[in-house]
Design brief:
The chain is an alpha/beta fold. The chain has a single domain, classed as Rossmann fold (3-Layer(aba) Sandwich). It contains nine helices and nine strands. The strands form three sheets. Strands 3-4-5-8-9 form a five-stranded mixed β-sheet, sandwiched between helices. Strands 1-2 form a two-stranded parallel sheet. Helix 2 links the parallel strand 1 and strand 2. It is globular and about 50 Å long. The relative contact order is 0.13. The model has no long low-confidence stretch (mean pLDDT 95). Its EC number is 1.1.1.1. InterPro entries: ADH_Drosophila-type, NAD(P)-bd_dom_sf, Sc_DH/Rdtase_CS, SDR_fam. Homodimer. This is Alcohol dehydrogenase.
């Protein structure tokens, strides 16, 4: 995902810094956002491919092959797809966890040094709920805990694969995602209202912290992006 919420603001911040290419894989096309990103910096070529993270692994590999054939080198993968709706149990797990694992597994075909690949960097967008759950949305929180754990394992495998990884864990950020969502079994009908009563950050503040984390490029880091700050979290299960 790169064309909505935190992802769009992060894409803006990345393009401002002028990388050669930014490839956006998203389920929903947003031509206006795409046009804006393309106009931001003439140094960066922005391309879009439709992609749903819930497709089978083979399909992810096929799409990535198209991208690698075209660009030759890809330095960074940001896994950013996510949904927040504890009525949709299977979809929450499919998008937030399984999809992230599959996309990561797919890119290993091209990056893994055991296959002659050059290595690479993976930034997984997790959530502070991964280590401090919002208990009214236990499915969402657990899916995020799973990807925090998965990312920490990836980082420890870097000496084998050549692929490093770190997790990006935003706190409560003012995006459409948090304005209205369902709690598990409706245990708390006002969950979004209660959440928004806490201090929050804007998606621009979150995006700026995200880019700082990308620049730090620290394997195994668990970054907390909250209230406009970027902090490393010491977390042991």
């Amino acid at each position: 995902a790169g064309l909505g919420g935190i992802a769009l603001d992060t894409s803006r911040e990345i393009v401002k810094r002028g990388p050669k290419n930014l490839v956006i894989l998203d389920r929903i096309d947003n031509p206006a956002a795409l046009a804006e990103l393309k106009a931001l910096n003439s140094k960066t070529t922005v391309t879009y491919y439709p992609y749903d993270v819930t497709v089978p692994l083979a399909e992810s590999i096929k799409l990535l092959k198209t991208i690698f054939d075209k660009l030759k080198t890809v330095d960074l993968l940001i896994n950013g797809a996510g949904i927040l709706d504890d009525h949709q149990i299977e979809r929450t797990i499919a998008v937030n966890f399984t999809g992230l694992v599959n996309t990561t597994t797919a890119i290993m075909e091209f990056w893994d040094k055991r296959k002659g690949g050059p290595g690479g960097v993976i930034a997984n967008i997790c959530s502070v709920t991964g280590f401090n759950s919002i208990y009214q949305v236990p499915v969402y929180s657990a899916s995020k805990a799973a990807v925090v754990s998965f990312t920490s394992s990836l980082a420890k495998l870097a000496h084998i694969t050549g692929v490093t990884a770190y997790s990006i864990n935003p706190g409560i950020t003012r995006t459409p995602l948090v304005h209205n969502f369902n709690s598990w079994l409706d245990v708390e009908p006002r969950v979004s209202e209660l959440l928004m009563a806490y201090p929050t950050q804007s998606s621009v503040e979150c995006a700026q912290s995200f880019v700082k984390a990308i620049e730090a490029n620290q394997n195994g880091a668990i970054w907390k992006l909250d209230l406009g700050r970027l902090d490393a979290v010491e977390w042991t299960k």
